[in-house]
Design goal:
This protein is of the alpha/beta class. Helices cover about 30% and strands about 25% of the residues. The protein has a 7-stranded mixed beta sheet with strand order 1-11-10-4-9-8-7, with helices on both faces. Strand 13, helix 10 (about 280-285) and strand 14 (about 290-295) form a beta-alpha-beta unit. The protein starts with a strand and ends in a 7-residue tail after the last strand. Bound molecules: adenosine-5'-triphosphate and magnesium ion.
């Protein structure tokens, strides 16, 4: 038996708000006994995961735990070592139009003459629209609507290199959504965005999954900006994983077990703060957006209204 366990046996209040459970055939993403190893090293194994249409799953874990590799498996760019991966009922494969993908953010290099509107256009599947006049008109309508959806009308015709990181990211989201995918895979889409743009981008994605029933897998090192949106967390760590609602996974007991050392999870004004020591904190990164070394949270500020979740006790 694997140490990895799913913690979703009983429906929580959050889960009761979700679309009804699907059988695996109608899941947007279905992983069955999935294992990914490189040589001797196993990133994750015995991973069973059904992501329902419209569900928002955050994928957390330290650097190198296999988050991006998981997305690559679903994108058909990387094969599983064992088990199966299906997207909307069919085996994962490269070039799948059912998937929209927001890759890890790269600043567009100067010298690239692409405009925002061109980037979004790249997300439209050419076969579906053809080259005829009608096809071109439909394609243009789709691109214009996608740009409007992310509120990028004002800068979409400017060169990408002239845009801020937040503006570029909005257009990447538009590119991922323009083909109306059933599954949206986002790899650290909030990286290097300020708080206002973090909110804007996460709300765009959240709105989409509600209006179009798009399933979302959202890789992030910081859960706090998306905490109110997350239905379930998949936490990858050193060959193991935990899967459940944030309330189930983001606890002192679960993280201490995953990291094999003492970790405290504090809940402060609706945010999670992860407190550990030394190397653990380096590995934890920003599982909680704020963290500290040792026992003094918030750089010494006494958390008067802190609800400290003690080990093994759920709030
Ligand atoms: N094709 C490959 N061959 C061998 N090792 C690989 C390959 N792809 C990824 N790896 C290794 O697998 C591990 C997981 O990589 P991955 O990019 O999935 O991590 P991650 O969780 O996304 O990390 P980060 O938070 O740094 O983005 C890394 O140690 C990486 O070097
Ligand atoms: Mg990665």
């Amino acid at each position: 038996m694997s140490e990895s366990t799913a913690l979703t046996e009983h429906a929580t209040p959050v889960e009761r708000l979700l679309p009804p459970r699907t059988d695996s055939g109608s899941a947007a993403v279905h992983l069955d006994a999935a294992r990914l190893s490189f040589g001797e090293r196993t990133l994750w194994q015995e991973l069973d995961l059904d992501v329902r249409p419209g569900e928002f799953v955050a994928v957390l874990g330290p650097n190198g735990s296999g988050k991006t590799s998981l997305l690559k498996v679903l994108l058909g760019q990387l094969g599983l070592s064992s088990g199966t991966a299906d997207i909307a009922g069919a085996p994962a494969r490269a070039g799948n139009p059912d998937i929209g993908y927001v890759p890890q953010q790269k600043t567009i290099d100067s010298g690239v003459q692409l405009r925002g509107v061109d980037l979004v256009g790249l997300g439209v599947d050419g076969h579906r629209w053809g080259l005829g006049l009608r096809g071109r008109a439909a394609r243009k309508r789709k691109v214009t609507a996608a740009i409007a959806d992310v509120g990028a009308e004002k800068f979409a015709y400017a060169p990408l290199e002239s845009m801020s990181g937040g503006e570029q990211q909005r257009l990447r989201v538009a590119q991922a959504l323009v083909g109306d995918p059933k599954v949206l895979l986002c790899d650290e889409p909030l990286l290097s965005l300020d708080l206002a743009n973090q909110r804007l981008v996460s709300e765009l994605i959240d709105r989409r999954r509600h209006t179009h029933n798009t399933a979302v897998l959202f890789v992030t090192h910081e859960i706090n900006p998306i905490l109110p949106l997350v239905d379930r967390v998949l936490y990858l760590m050193d060959g193991k994983f935990r899967l459940g609602t944030p309330e189930e996974v983001m606890t002192s007991a679960v993280l201490s077990e995953l990291y094999q050392t003492e970790v405290d999870v504090l809940r402060v004004r609706g945010r999670l703060v992860v407190v550990g020591t030394g190397d653990t904190m380096d590995a934890l990164g920003a599982a909680g957006a704020q963290h500290c070394h040792g026992a003094v949270p918030f750089g010494g500020t006494a958390p008067s209204d802190t609800d400290i979740e003690s080990r093994g006790v759920r709030s």
